[in-house]
Design brief:
Strand order of the largest sheet: 5-6-7-8-9-10-11-12
Oligomer: single chain
Number of domains: 2
Low-confidence stretches: none
CATH superfamily of the largest domain: Enolase-like C-terminal domain
CATH architecture of the largest domain: Alpha-Beta Barrel
Distance between the termini: 24 Å
CATH topology of the largest domain: TIM Barrel
CATH class of the largest domain: Alpha Beta
Strand content: 15-25%
Order of helices and strands: EEEHHHHEEHEHEHEHEHEHHEHEHEE
Mean pLDDT: 95
Structural class: alpha/beta
């Protein structure tokens, strides 16, 4: 007997951050997220989470709640075995992408559970553990970066992702502060759309000259500045990943055709699971590297991304640290964290 979607519950909640989260796009001290739980007629349930963000400041929590509740009403009674059609229908409703992505994560989580599988196994079961970086925000005071980096190093984090902007002197002070905790740490520099081609190149070259192990430069320019990216990508001595510029498979095709980057950062929170598979297929076919990132999801909200990365094994760069940036214990679903290590823990 086919299972149907029985009901949907949506909850909006606020979580404080351990430290202010600062990028070139702004600053926040807490996150407000909307969680959605879908239950199937056979009893299985699944969870997804939409997180507010600096990159999409116009998406207010109540809009996410209303969108998820609307999707829940629309989906009630639909055949969960036809999950692809349901997911396509949800995305066609032209609701905010974080809401559609959260709904999709909840549905596929429930469908996998009804089959007795974790999402890791659902997506192939390639890995049983990952190592993530830790994000160091664009704090003005280098001592905040130093202290956060030392704390992360004590907890076992070996890779630092550092938020940077357009000011070379400030950026270098931040990088030096991070490296004081772990001088040989691989680094990802994340511009969050706040740089120019010249400032991006100057920063990377200056860091390399000082002996920093820069592995990747992420989204240095505005997301719409694809036309400026090919020249920067050719000149940059390290790979460049695009994040905000890539939300759909069509975006990935444009990036590949323009030779605008050497890597793509996939975020389940903005693209959903099935679209992310398509983005990965485009990138892999073109020989681009892949990164997986997150917003400010809780441990439960991060679950879909962790399982996707474990299941596919696609990702050279892993940035799944959002639960670690939040204050207080984080509930997780079917995975566990030991410092930077993310591991499948049950329901295999």
């Amino acid at each position: 007997m086919a299972e149907t979607i029985r009901d949907c519950a949506v909850r909006v909640f606020e979580m404080p951050l351990k430290r202010p989260f600062v990028t070139s796009l702004g600053r926040k001290t807490h996150t407000v997220n909307a969680g959605v739980t879908l239950r199937l007629s056979g009893g299985a349930s699944g969870y997804g989470e939409a997180s507010t963000s600096l990159a999409s400041a116009h998406l207010k929590p109540e809009r996410l709640r209303a969108s998820l509740e609307s999707l829940g009403r629309w989906a009630k009674g639909r055949d969960a075995d036809q999950y692809r059609a349901v997911i396509e229908g949800a995305w066609k409703k032209d609701l905010p992408s974080p809401a559609a992505a959260a709904f999709e994560c909840a549905l596929l989580d429930a469908v996998a559970a009804s089959s007795g599988l974790s999402l890791t196994r659902w997506f192939g079961g390639k890995l049983d553990r990952l190592e993530t970086d830790i994000t160091l925000s664009a704090w003005e005071d280098p001592s905040m970066t130093r202290d956060a980096a030392r704390e992360a190093a004590r907890e076992g984090f070996r890779i630092f992702k550092i938020k940077v902007g357009g000011d070379l002197k400030v950026n270098l002070a931040r990088v030096r502060a991070a490296r004081s905790a772990r001088p040989k740490a691989p680094l990802i520099l994340d511009g969050n759309q706040g740089m120019t081609p010249a400032s991006a190149l100057h920063l990377v070259e200056a860091c390399l000259k000082e002996g920093a192990d820069v592995r990747l430069l992420e989204q240095p320019l505005l997301k719409a500045d694809i036309a400026k990216m090919p020249a920067l990508t050719r000149r940059c001595p390290v790979p460049i990943a695009l994040d905000e510029s890539c939300q759909t498979p069509q975006d990935a095709v444009l990036i590949v055709e323009a030779k605008a980057a050497t890597a793509i950062n996939i975020k389940i929170a903005k693209s959903g699971l099935l679209r992310s598979l398509d983005i990965a297929a485009v990138a892999r076919a073109a020989g681009l590297k892949l990164m997986i990132g997150c917003m400010t999801e809780t441990g439960a909200g991060l679950s879909a991304s962790v399982h996707f990365a474990l299941g596919t094994g696609f990702f050279e760069f892993v940035d799944l640290d959002s639960d670690h940036l939040l204050s207080g214990p984080q509930k997780r679903r079917d995975w566990e964290r030991t410092g930077p290590e993310l591991r499948l823990s049950c329901r295999t």
